[in-house]
TrEMBL record:
Pfam families: NDK. Belongs to the NDK family. Keywords: ATP-binding, Cytoplasm, Kinase, Magnesium, Metal-binding, Nucleotide metabolism, Nucleotide-binding, Phosphoprotein, Transferase. It comes from the Bacteria. This is Nucleoside diphosphate kinase. Its main location: cytoplasm. It comes from Alicyclobacillus acidocaldarius subsp. acidocaldarius (strain ATCC 27009 / DSM 446 / BCRC 14685 / JCM 5260 / KCTC 1825 / NBRC 15652 / NCIMB 11725 / NRRL B-14509 / 104-IA).
């Protein structure tokens, strides 16, 4: 089914100048960019986004890191977009992510793993509403 998914380039990726490379990979794959913005994340947004990890020992570090410097947030749309994005990102731990994936090619440690993508249709809906209350744009391709 045609889906929308929430994706963000984390502070490490933005600081390393990897936004273009990462967006380019998704665009080349055929996914459609329907919303995008650079965001300085508040503690409130970080805690809401990572609510499911609240009890984890690394929760404090996670919130600290994601609020440390801007992230590039986007909504991507396409057939099976949620699973396709996750496959393209690779495993959460870049040390285990396959070469050819974003984390496999560009990441090194689990804390700074370059990119985040929604892990299910439920997460995608929740994260899109949380990060883009203004919604996505609707447009058609009219050029070759
Ligand atoms: P993400 O997909 O953004 O969702 C939760 C994040 O927690 C995950 O990527 C990792 O960056 C981070 N994470 C998972 N395990 C650890 C860990 N052991 N130490 C620090 N961060 C972690």
């Amino acid at each position: 089914a045609r889906e929308q998914t929430f994706v963000m380039v984390k502070p490490d990726g933005v600081q390393r100048g990897l936004v273009g490379e990462i967006v380019a990979r998704f665009e080349r794959k055929g996914l459609k960019l329907v919303a995008a913005k650079l965001v300085q994340v508040s503690k409130e947004l970080a805690e809401a986004h990572y609510a499911e990890h609240r009890e984890r020992p690394f929760f404090g570090e996670l919130v600290q890191f994601i609020t440390s410097s801007p992230v590039f947030a986007m909504i991507l749309e396409g057939e099976n977009a949620i699973a396709v994005v996750r496959a393209m990102m690779g495993k959460t731990n870049p040390a285990e992510a396959a070469p050819g994936t974003i984390r496999g090619d560009l990441g090194l440690t689990i804390g700074m793993n370059v990119v985040h993508g929604s892990d299910s249709p439920e997460s995608a809906k929740r994260e899109i509403e949380l990060w883009f209350p203004e919604g996505a744009l609707t447009y058609e391709r009219t050029v070759d």
